[in-house]
Predict the 3D structure of the following.
Amino acid sequence: MTQRPGPKALDYIARDKQFVSPSYTRGYPFVMDHGRGTEVWDVDGNRYLDFTSGVAVTATGHSHPEVVRAIQEQAEKFLHMSGTDFYYPLQVELAEKLDEIAPMQELAQTFFTNSGAESIEAAIKLALYASNRHYFIAFYGGFHGRTMGALAFTASKPVHRGGFLPAMPPVTHAIFPDPYRPALSDLDKDEGLAAVKFIETFILGRKLPADEIAGILVEPIQGEGGYIIPPPSFFPALRKLCDKHGILLIVDEIQAGMGRTGKWFAIQHEGVEPDIVACAKGIASGLPLGAMIARKSLMTWPAGAHASTFGGNPLSCAAALVTLRLLENGLMDNATRMGAYLLEHLRRLMERHPHIGDVRGRGLMIGVEIVKDRTTKERFKKMRDRLVDTAYEHGLLLLGAGPNTIRIVPPLTVNQAEIDEAMDILDRVFTLEESRLS
């Protein structure tokens, strides 16, 4: 083991700076060499616990042997035969499985993509075509990607949109209900109902005709916005509003889906069915794959209306089928059990560390909000950033989310011993950073 970062890592970082786009959002200087499960090692031999899962992607852990075996076996057969123009069994079998687990009773059909942003783009196009309407509603704090269509819906940081406006298509943003920071109490004492009343009263009542709105795009749990779980009243009221006006409910499950919350999709905690689902990240354990899943009755667009040369490539489909089997055969249950165990740990940390303002989560999608003062709830971004950086220095990989939240998203394979080790590190990191403040 060497210093963090070690000499090899520093060399790669210097070369990266010379030849790779500066638009990437690297925080601390971790340069990966290899990983297994929850453990990863950098190029200098330092071991870390990965509680980022590559931004909620490696659901089955790093290099799960069954996933690796499926990729190897498929690679020996063929690497590519575009599903846009030809057929292959793996793509059909995966579409069948996605229909089986889709969060709607109606038969579902899938359009395969390479990423979350592409899944959002496909959802936008389908909603426009199926509804013959032109406007959309999204939410402040939402993140849906950086491609030009998805960017119109993203509203979590100005840097995402700066220099790229005007966005397309036309999107109006509403306020996402945050139980920890209620902003709409004048409309209703229930923050979830108030958020829907805001849409009906101010957006539909004063700005947009309801019969021209194609869809409402929303994350069941806001990811980049700060791991915010809306009140239980929100989604039933939003579904009712959509039904009233013939608006499609589109859910972005890119970060929250694929078993991370203990169910296939986070929307399944809410007791409502969406019309269109966008997913990616954890679907294939790290291989590039996304899916736009929709009710079959909406999939009326003709051949050639939308397509992708690489979407649903055979290697990714092979990885996805094994990933879904592993999730179904124990990892989703593990996400529920270990998520509860992790939340219990974090709430004990909260008793000892006054800058933890809130701990919230479902399954293994957990946010820890850092504040200067619990009474005022003033955000403490600087300390959040220091905690994340110092955790890296002590062998724990974390990421921020929103202005002042730490996201904790380990692989769904994580066990109690790994959680204990990670929480011991985090406890020490809090103590160290608090001592620096004083």
